[in-house]
Each structure stands twice: as C-alpha cells, then as structure tokens.
Amino acid sequence: MSVGNTLLDHDHQALIALVNELHTATSRGEGREVVGDILDRLLVYTQQHFQREEHHMEQVHYSKMVEHLRLHRDLYERVLELKARFDSGHITVAAQVSSLLRDWLSLHILRDDKQFAAEVTTASADAAQGAGG
Prior knowledge:
Elements: H1 6-27, H2 32-60, H3 65-87, H4 93-132
Helix pairs in contact: 1-2, 1-4, 2-3, 2-4, 3-4
C-alpha cells in the first residue's frame, strides 16, 4: 500500500499497526484502560499524520487538496464521536472504531493517497523534463 513517499508510507504503516493493536485488544476483551489508551494514541497519531500529509499537499499545490482535506476532517470527526461514546461507557464502540479505520485506511490509501502520489510524480517528471529541455 505504498504511495511512494517515505514519510507518508511510514505514517500509514504506524497507523495500520495502531489499528491492528486496537483490533487485537478488543478481540481479546482487554479492559477499558488499555483500549482507551490505544484510541487516544490513534487519535493523536492520525491528527499528526493528516498535518504532515496536508503540509506536503500545500507544498506541491495538489489540485484536489480541498476534497482530500474534507475526507480527513470527516474521518477525524467520526472517530472523535465514537471516542466520546467510548468514554461515556460504550465499550463496543472500540470495535466499531477498529473496523471503521481499517476499512477507511485501506480505501483512502489505495485510492486517495495514491492519486495524490501519482499527481506529484507526474508533476515532478514534467518539471524535470522542462528543466532538461
């Protein structure tokens, strides 16, 4: 699921590892404290990743940045809502977060982030040709 950018690929791997950790914890029926800690780390890392990715998009003037940012905000708000439900005592919400993020990350990386990477690669190749010719 590489997008061809080392930093973003590392972020995606870390996010997937956290989602897997959350899935394992919920599957094992681990306590609220463990699951809550994973959810907190996942929210922080997701926000940091989105900031890095969006900064990169700004630098390269990504043509679909507005739409991409909306996808980021929509997901983050959904996860915050689920986290609030978890904090109010709904333990099964953690499994919902795990499923949501697993599905969203797979689709988002394979479709949206790869589209972004393809545009950056094309723009870089065009710039290199223009500089050489």
